[in-house]
Design goal:
With about 140 residues, this protein is an alpha+beta fold. The chain has a single domain, classed as Nucleoside Triphosphate Pyrophosphohydrolase. The chain is about 20% helix and about 35% strand. The protein contains three helices and seven strands; from the N terminus they run E-E-E-E-E-E-E-H-H-H. Strands 2, 3, 4 and 7 form a four-stranded antiparallel beta sheet that branches. Strands 1-6-5 form a three-stranded mixed beta sheet, covered by helices on one side. The protein is globular, with a radius of gyration of 18 Å.
């Protein structure tokens, strides 16, 4: 039976042509990745499925674009994160071997081409409200 993919969320945020990335330690290696912390999403950038050729592990990534209103460079970082950086697309491309996966650059490129999808289809289901709404449905 095929193994289910690891599901991740990425926040793609840009200010003045630079993208926020985190530097994190994964398997004793420092890599660059998009953050997944406090963030106000405005659009879905895309849903990406990637298979790591070295390990065979698959990742299903939901990437959102939006704003980080309260980024504080002095804030205590999450476990495994060693730093944050604002890098241009060219700076990210120059560090391609240090990216956590090729999805980092793919998301930046999709952002730069203007790709945006509405958030509404991703709305969570409130089971109480859904139950009440279904009680109002008239069957013929």
């Amino acid at each position: 039976m095929p193994r289910t993919p690891d599901v991740t969320v990425a926040a793609v945020t840009e200010t003045a042509g630079r993208f926020l990335v985190v530097e994190e330690r994964i398997n004793h290696r420092l890599v660059l990745n998009q953050p997944a912390g406090r963030f106000e999403p405005t659009a879905l950038l895309g849903v990406y499925l990637w298979r790591n050729p070295a390990s065979g592990r698959r990742t299903l990534r939901f990437a959102f674009t939006g704003a980080v209103a309260d980024h504080d460079a002095g804030q205590k970082l999450d476990r495994g994160i060693v730093g944050t950086h604002w890098l241009s697309p060219l700076e990210l491309e120059a560090r391609a071997t240090r990216l956590r996966s090729p999805l980092v650059l793919r998301c930046v490129h999709d952002y730069l081409t203007g790709q945006r999808l509405a958030l509404e289809p991703l709305a969570g289901l409130d089971l109480h409200a859904a139950s009440a709404a279904s009680a109002d449905v008239v069957t013929l």
